[in-house]
Amino acid sequence: MALIGGKSGAPALPLTVVGLIGSLLPVGYLHVVSVGKLSPVRHTVSDYIFVDGGSVLLGAAALLLSAASVGLLVVLVRSGLPRRGPVSWLLGLWAAGLAVAAVFPTDPTGVPTSFSGAVHRYAGAVMFAALPLAGWLVSRTFTANTAVRRFSVAAGITSVAFMLSHVALVRPDGGAVLLGLFERVLFVLLYGLLFALAAVAVRRGVSS
């Protein structure tokens, strides 16, 4: 695999960081061009597929983030993370969930759930649970890193809040629809966690 880059795995780390940053660009662009069309408080990031060009851009962002996450897993394994341990499986589930969510788009708000929409939602539930748990396990068993632990705990709590916020969609008295707000906060925390994990790899000498 080209990302591994020999014994040290050094090329994988800069490619991973570039992939993480690159995955943010299409989403940032979609936020700008959708002003006045979609609400960042009510609508999820997945809803940007309904903006002109959104399907391609959002799919590319998700696949790039998935690839970057696989690269991150490679460098962490190269730095001593057990290849077949629970963290590797959870990071793999996160990356796979992103890819599946990209292939199976969501449904428009208010439309009955289709097969694609159901797969998208389940993939999202898996990935939003897997990455915070993986980060927490890393901070407990692999490196006592404060940033990794704090991002993991904050992301885990926000993930639960995001899941619970779906109640407003299915119950008339469920309260204000805050799906988009919770999901965007969650993504900020998840990206923070991914960059913190990359920093752990740097400190363990992967890039040397």
Please describe the structure with a list of short key phrases separated by commas or semicolons.
disordered N terminus
Per-chain topology:
Elements (H helix, E strand, L loop, with lengths): L11 H22 L20 H25 L7 H18 L11 H27 L4 H19 L2 H4 L8 H25 L5
Q: What is the compact description of this entry?
A:
The chain has 208 residues and is mainly alpha-helical.
Helix and strand content put the structural class at: mainly alpha
Number of helices: 7
- What is the element string, with H for helices and E for strands? HHHHHHH
How helix-rich are the residues, as a percent range? 55-70%
Q: Which strand-content bin applies to the residues?
A: under 5%
Question: Termini separation (Å)?
Answer: 20 Å
Number of domains: 1
What is the oligomer described by this structure? Answer: single chain
Overall geometry: globular
> What's the story with the biggest beta sheet?
none
Average pLDDT level: 87
Question: What gyration radius follows from the Cα positions, in whole Å?
Answer: 17 Å
Number of strands: 0
Name the poorly predicted regions: 1-9, 172-176
Please tell me about this protein's structure.
The chain is mainly alpha-helical and 208 residues long. It has one domain. Helices cover 67% and strands 0% of the residues. The protein is built from seven helices and no strands. It has helices at residues 12-33, 54-78, 86-103, 115-141, 146-164, 167-170, 179-203. It is globular and about 45 Å long. Mean pLDDT is 87; it is low at 1-9 and 172-176. Keywords: Membrane, Transmembrane, Transmembrane helix. It comes from Saccharothrix lopnurensis. The chain crosses the membrane at residues 12-36, 56-77, 89-106, 118-139, 151-169, 181-202. InterPro entries: DUF998 (IPR009339). Pfam families: DUF998.
